[in-house]
Specification:
alpha/beta; 9 strands
């Protein structure tokens, strides 16, 4: 599609949603039918490592063969932080499919996806309060995001997650508290990703594929995530 032409007004009338997650060495794929969300959920994970670039399409087709991609009405993808190549591949694939099918694409950080299950490890006296998820990158420092777990939506079977600060590279002298070490569990997180996207679909929320970009916190170029999320120590206590 010519990027200079106006966006088509009509959108795919399918009912399937698909989620892609490869911010670690494991690819997660999940699909659901918006007409029967409680009976149609299907997911699988593939420990591909460096074979992701060769196998991503064949693995996705094991969950949803390409002849059925026309039935997709919405996509979602984990945008990192995570492995540079793995994250980039799934984001590019998701953007391409969303562009070609003219459907919405939700990009959600891998830290926001793991936040609900990691929050369960917090002490009871700080549950329901803001906390940080951090990951140590050797020779580069800490990347972190700040989160708050909201209401449990029983009818939709997931916790609301408020991402107060997107993951970014912390200043060397900043020690966020309370904090939890990032821990991947793609089996669980790809389903969380799909459920969040399903909720957006049910609320008729728009989400354009052009706005879905990978998070690269350690890029030498200061990106929007970093500049928007630098902590203001004068206004907050840590």
């Amino acid at each position: 599609m010519n990027l200079n032409t106006p966006e088509r007004k009509s959108r795919n009338k399918g009912s399937l949603l698909m989620a892609l997650h490869s911010s670690s060495n494991t690819l997660g794929v999940a699909i659901i039918d918006a007409r029967e969300p409680h009976q149609s959920l299907k997911s699988s994970t593939f420990p591909l490592g460096r074979e992701l670039s060769k196998s991503i399409i064949s693995c996705v087709e094991k969950i949803l063969p390409s002849e059925y991609w026309q039935q997709l009405c919405r996509l979602s993808v984990s945008i990192g932080p995570g492995g540079f190549t793995g994250t980039r591949l799934t984001v590019v694939m998701a953007r391409t499919i969303a562009q070609q099918l003219n459907i919405y694409l939700d990009g959600i950080s891998s830290f926001a996806l793991m936040a609900p299950r990691l929050a369960a490890s917090l002490n009871s006296n700080i549950q329901g309060k803001q906390f940080w998820i951090v990951k140590d990158l050797p020779r580069r420092g800490l990347i972190a995001g700040e989160y708050l777990i909201g209401n449990y939506l029983r009818s939709k079977d997931f916790w609301e997650v408020i991402e107060i600060k997107h993951p970014y590279l912390l200043p060397y002298d900043f020690n966020p508290q309370p904090k939890i070490i990032a821990s991947d569990n793609v089996d669980i997180d790809v389903i969380q990703l799909l459920k969040l996207s399903l909720n957006e679909h049910q609320l008729s929320q728009e989400s354009h594929w052009r706005n879905t970009l990978p998070i690269y916190p350690t890029s030498p170029v200061m990106n929007n995530y970093q500049t928007e999320n630098l902590p203001k120590k004068s206004n907050q206590e840590y």
